[in-house]
Amino acid sequence: MISSSVITECLNCGKTFEGIVLSCEGCNGIPILRLKDMKWKVRQGIPNIWRYQSMLPKFDRIVSLGEGLTPIRRLGNIGIKLESRNPSGSYADRASALIASYFLSAKPSSVVKINYSRDFAHSLASYLVGIAGIEVYLEDLNNVDADEVLYLTEMGANIKFGKGDSSLSYMNPLTIEGLKTIAFELVERGFTNGRIYVPAETGLLALSLWKGIEDLNEVGVSTELEVVAVYLEGTNPPDILRSVKQIRSIAVGREKALSELIELAKRGTKTKLISASPLAAAKEMGSKNSIVILTATSAKTSPLIGFKKSKLAKEILLVLREMGGGTAYEVWERLGKYTLRGVYKSLVSLERAGLVRSEYSVEGKRRKRKVYLSINEEKSSEP
User: Fold this and answer.
1) What distance in Å separates the CA atoms of residue 203 and residue 198, rounded to the nearest whole number?
2) Region 313-322: what's the mean pLDDT?
3) Annotated domain spans of the chain
4) Which of 131, 175, 212, 219 could serve as a FRET partner for 52 with CA atoms 20 to 30 Å apart?
5) Pairing relation of β-strands 16-18 and 6-10?
6) pLDDT at 242
């Protein structure tokens, strides 16, 4: 069951709907959710985006793979938030956690139709394994990442060509709700005054951060944050940014963006050109009180091709079911006849193959403890 204390409002035509509506049937505009009972109450023991559950839509069952709480690294005076540290290597995992929770609560065992977009389809498929069937529609083959398509097929997705009827696109209100948690994390860490630079390929990330800031202001958390959406010269700013005057849009040259891409790679962070562009913009505009959102890695986590369950893997699955989940060390102790390294490697392989899930618990103030669960176990629970 999903809480009814939410109204969906289309930013384009202004039409409102009771409950969660994933697209505006009237104008095909971008809908956002208006939550009626928000309050700023951080659940300190929750090591993922659900620590902000009081600011998010309410679901009976929630899904998490440990997304969120991504680190911030300093590059001179600029803070860089490494969204590439999310489970699939992308900021989109925040959105996927919301979407998977929605389908698990409202439409369990359904087939989710997804309009392909880079990072989003890859991330969402990872979260929907064991929750719903997956159909991915490839409409524009010029913008398809072949490695991602292979990943999707290995995760059990059915690949379709063309645009699917009633299929889910990246541009939906649950994506916005998931991505706005980036703003919550910044405010929780004390960043309440300054600029947040984000890449603007579609503009939805910038819109989501703006929504997060607006929600915080609504519940009495005062901020002076400005969202700066950065796009590459030679491309047009995304249309959806026109609906929000508070978001500043600027263009940066490809040469400057490429220079920052190289600089990041030298420091051990590989990303994409569009993801590196906000760093160039921050340096150009002045870096004081600046945070750059580094959205994704250039690499993708993929399951093992042709994975087959070994004797060790089968024993691990049996132990996880008997224990109801456990850390790699606990599984190793229970088995008693394999090396810890072998158990860990097998757990990683099982997770990539979609046979095992992992989630995190917090020990101490912020230390994460990774627990593995058999895919046949309960996927999530109310925190």
Assistant:
1) 9
2) 81
3) 72-87+178-294, 311-374
4) 131
5) antiparallel
6) 87
Q: How far is CA 194 from CA 188, 189, 209, 227, in A?
A: 14, 13, 13, 9
Question: Would you place residue 109 in the very low, low, confident or very high pLDDT band (cuts 50, 70, 90)?
Answer: low
- Is residue 244 a contact partner of residue 258, using CB atoms and an 8 Å limit? no
DSSP labels, 202-243: SSHHHHHHHHHHHHHHHTT---EEEEEEEEETTSPPPGGGGG
Residue 181 contacts residue 67 (beta carbons within 8 Å): no
pTM beyond 0.85: no
Q: What letter represents residue 370's amino acid?
A: K
Q: What tokens were used for 110?
A: 């359904």
- Helix segments in the chain, DSSP class H: 92-106, 120-128, 146-154, 173-179, 181-188, 204-218, 254-266, 273-285, 311-323, 328-335, 340-352
Strand partners, 362: 368
CATH number of 311-374: 1.10.10.10
Phi, psi for residue 34 in degrees, rounded to 5: -110, 105
Q: Using only C-alpha atoms, what is the Rg of the chain? A: 21
Q: What is the CATH number assigned to the segment(s) 72-87+178-294?
A: 3.40.50.1100
pLDDT digits (tens, 9 = 90+) for 115-159: 999 889 999 998 888 788 899 999 999 989 898 898 898 878 999
C-alpha span between 169 and 186 (Å, rounded): 27
- Residue pair 161/189 in contact by the 8 Å Cβ criterion: no
208 vs 30: CA distance, rounded Å = 11
Count the alpha carbons within 13 Å of 31 in the hemisphere toward its beta carbon.
26
